[in-house]
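User: Please predict the structure of the protein below. I'd like the answer in structure-token form so I can feed it into my own downstream comparison script.

Assistant: Understood. Taking the following sequence of 150 residues as input:
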Amino acid sequence: MINQESAAASISLALSADHERLDRLFDDACTRVGAGDFPGATMSFSEFARGLLHHIAVEERSLFPAFDARARMPGPTAVMCHEHRAIERSLALAADALTSLGASRFATEAAELSAILAAHNMKEERIIYPRSDAALDETERAAVLEALRR
């Protein structure tokens, strides 16, 4: 799922690289919908959705608990979890639009999802990930990175 070299370096690099990978899949799905290639779009979007849900699970089950225990400031992770629920809802709406072959509706839902993800990912990449690299010890970082690889 992720580049081994970036995984060895830091949470910031590995999770940011995963954001980029997911963005490429999402962009591919959107491009394919625009071209009328619904089967291809469905494949790309399905891979994107699986990857995004895995990414969220890794953060909530591995990264955030370790971050909260070390940094002793659960506020940022609580906000991220709240945003994850909004992302999941938006993801489901986009998937439903794609399933019904509604290019216009998918474009609307995809634009909303893209906006939510852009703002969310920026917060994670500028706040959560760097602070996690600083706060977590090597064993904790390795556990998060291993969870991401699965």
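That's the full token string. The CA atoms of residues 52 and 99 lie 18 Å apart.
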